[in-house]
Amino acid sequence: MALTEQQRSEIYSSLAGTIGRQGAEFLMAQQPPGGWEQLATKRDLADLETKTQAGFVEIRAMLVESEARMELRFAEVKEQFAAVDTRFAELSDRRSRDVWAFVAAITVLTVSICSSVFLAAWQFAPT
What we know:
Elements lengths: L4 H15 L1 H9 L12 H83 L3
Helix pairs in contact: 1-2
């Protein structure tokens, strides 16, 4: 129980009468500021240790659960990236085929135009 100011004053007066003022001041200064009931006991520390350990066990369990969820999510993301990579490869192959088809069409058109120009020039050439 915490001492009231009146109780502290009475104790001081009693001590001062018995051991003198200096001794009474010294003894009164030895009491913790909040009173002895504010000090932690070994039992208080053991209870705190138990609660702290239980808290750490709970945190570890939550971390393991979170890690498992993250691994699943990363696996899903990895699958999605694989699908995107496959689609890009398909588009790249298709684009390559389209480019080669365009080059072939331009080549055929160029040959056709050159042939037409050559034939026209040959027909109108002086003999």
